[in-house]
Design a protein that fits this description.
- The structure holds 2 protein chains of 2 kinds.
- Helix content of chain A is about 30%, strand content about 25%.
- Chain A contains 10 helices and 12 strands.
- Chain A has helices at about 50-60, 85-95, 105, 115-120, 130-145, 160-170, 190-205, 220-225, 240-245, 250-260, and strands at about 1-15, 20-35, 40-45, 65-70, 80, 95-100, 180, 210-215, 225-230, 235-240, 285-290, 290-295.
- Chain A has an 8-stranded mixed sheet with strand order 6-7-8-3-9-10-12-11, sandwiched between helices. Chain A has a 4-stranded antiparallel sheet with strand order 2-1-4-5.
- Chain B is built from 11 helices and 10 strands.
- In chain B, helix 7 packs parallel to helix 8.
- The radius of gyration of chain B is 19 Å and the shape is globular.
- The N and C termini of chain B lie far apart (about 40 Å).
- Classes of the chains: A alpha/beta, B alpha/beta.
């Protein structure tokens, strides 16, 4: 189980290389949530709301300004990301894998698929020998429904959907317990988008994965996730199970996101969106069972 | 009623190296009528953008038109003639490009980009007047502090704001047809809704026709009057919106509708 407690992130506003203005941008201010085993937690919000910052803090790519992130692995090993040693962090990064937004940019164009997949385990404790790595790579490709003869090809030879599958395979090669999917379907067409989402769902139940799924689109998040948190300006405004959130969005900002989804048969989204209000600093309150709203 | 734009049996080929050729658009036929929103939906690589680019002779050098005809207001556009095309571009047909961040010149302020376009209609006017006109049109598109914003460079705008400037540029010469090529794909859903609403509002007010290209059938369905479904270089289905949504005929359209319905589970 992954637990995030009241994390903050401040980015310094640089005035120059040696000068600090002692001013900060508050990208994330006091976000708490937890992801259970075999659960998919969705974070939605517009650009600049702090989604990616949270994801990067989760795998130790960014330092955490304040707060606490804990993870208990399936074999009951506990990790604390705040004061963890380099060794622990390396171990944790094998368990929690990050899949980034744009597969065209996250795959090195000069590496073959084989090398790309190996790069996930080379120089880690999981590396035994070439033969073992090859077996792992083939298995990972099988999981994402790609063929093993693709190992010798380069990323340019694949379509966007296939590239995203390769990126997922690179994450799966370490047999992780947590997947952090940062806008992984935003650059894909609808039918391919749905196939990738179905793949994520299948992997989740197969390996009991905890998944953090980040997107700006409430409709894709509602398709894969069990619970959703709505993020705005670095703060959680509403958190609920998918069904409750989609059928009864309480916060005006959530309603705004919900109305903005284009729908096949209703032209609702051309109507006026509810205006944005100032967001207060109040913590979230439980309005209905497991349905938290800030007000 | 005479169509505003009529494309018949259009074929486009891409040359890869000396010998390799690939037919990317085949036998495309469609019409766009006055005051109509014509939606084109299809996956990436289906030839949507190439078809749209061919209307204004904007195809990349490797792409060649192999067959067909394009008529705008009953006048032939093909074969391209510099003089005819110059009259069309911006004045009769405008193009809203996919990624606003990449289609502006980063070295020019928004004001200078806009004046450049105004200069074409008013070659002899004073700069002040052009600035006034730029401010007016930005205000029409709900951009606040328009006067100050004119001095900003493209990187100082957010994606949604830049796309509004692009729409302003497309509207300057009052064209009769606007081609919007995935104008909101790189934007957030809420910003997308605002930009689309603005486009529809303007379309109602100024009564231009629009070709709206997207891969999202739900988006197309909520704004278009007629829809063409493109798949692998062909238009596989083209009909009124309601007919395509309620009873799609081609396998690919059926798949699109099915997917959209499944994603709309709430």
């Amino acid at each position: 189980m992954l637990e995030i407690q009241n994390i903050h992130k401040r980015y310094p506003l640089h005035a120059g290389y040696f000068i600090s203005r002692k001013q900060f941008v508050l990208a994330v201010r006091g976000v708490s949530f937890s992801i259970k085993e075999e659960e998919c937690y969705g974070l939605v919000g517009e650009s600049g709301s702090g989604k990616t910052t949270i994801a990067r803090m989760l795998i130790g790519l960014l330092s955490i300004s304040d707060g606490c992130i804990q993870y208990t692995a399936h074999d009951n090993t506990a990790f604390n990301l705040i004061n963890s040693s380099r060794k622990d962090l390396r171990k944790f990064r094998l368990l929690a894998r990050y899949i980034s937004q744009d597969p065209a940019r996250s795959l090195d164009p000069r590496m073959t698929v084989e090398k790309i997949l190996y790069s996930g385990i080379r120089y880690t404790s999981l590396w035994v020998n070439q033969k073992n790595a090859y077996q792992r790579a083939v298995r990972a490709l099988e999981l994402v429904e790609l063929d093993s003869h693709m190992l010798s090809r380069y990323p340019v030879e694949f379509s966007g959907g296939q590239r995203q599958r390769i990126a997922i395979a690179r994450a799966l090669i370490t047999e992780p317990e947590v997947l952090i999917c940062d806008e992984i379907v935003s650059s894909l067409d609808m039918p391919i988008r749905k196939k990738i989402l179905d793949l994520i769902l299948r992997l989740k139940s197969l390996y009991h994965l905890s998944i953090l799924f980040i997107s700006h689109d409430l409709s894709t998040v509602s398709y894969v996730c069990d619970r959703i948190g709505v993020l705005y300006k670095g703060r959680l405004l509403e958190e609920a199970r998918v069904k409750d959130l989609m059928q009864n969005p309480i916060h005006p900002y959530t309603q705004r996101l919900y109305r903005a989804i284009p729908k096949l048969e209703k032209n609702v989204f051309i109507q006026d969106l509810p205006p944005l209000q100032e967001v207060s600093d109040m913590p979230m309150r439980e309005m209905a069972p497991e349905h938290f709203v800030a007000n | 009623m005479n169509p505003l734009l009529s494309v018949r049996n259009l074929g486009i080929e891409i040359h890869r190296g000396q010998m390799q050729k690939q037919q990317v658009v085949q036998d495309i036929t469609f019409e766009v009528y006055e005051k109509e929103i014509f939606g084109v939906v299809g996956e990436s690589g289906s030839g949507k953008t190439l078809t749209a680019l061919s209307l204004l002779a904007l195809l990349p050098p490797a792409a060649k038109i192999t067959s067909g005809s394009i008529q705008f207001k009953n006048k032939d556009v093909l074969p391209y003639q510099e003089k005819v095309i110059r009259e069309l571009r911006g004045k009769e047909i405008s193009y809203i490009f996919q990624e606003p961040g990449r289609s502006f010149d980063p070295l020019h302020t928004i004001g200078s980009t806009m004046s450049e376009t105004f200069r074409r209609i008013y070659p002899m006017e004073k700069q002040d007047l052009l600035t006034q006109k730029s401010i007016k049109i930005l205000q029409d598109l709900h951009i606040s502090h328009a006067e100050r914003r004119l001095k900003n460079y493209p990187h100082q705008f957010s994606g949604g704001m830049l796309q509004r400037v692009m729409i302003a540029l497309a509207l300057i010469q009052n064209p009769q047809l606007i081609i919007a090529d995935e104008p909101t794909t790189s934007l957030d859903v809420t910003i997308q809704a605002e930009v689309i609403r603005l486009l529809i509002e303007l379309q109602k007010k100024r009564r231009f026709s629009m070709i709206f290209i997207s891969h999202n059938i739900a988006l197309i369905a909520s704004i278009a009057h007629r829809i063409a479904v493109m798949y692998r270089g062909h238009i596989v289905e083209c009909d009124l919106k309601d007919k395509i949504i309620s009873s799609p005929q081609h396998e690919y359209s059926k798949l699109l509708i099915k997917n959209a319905n499944e994603l709309e589970c709430y």
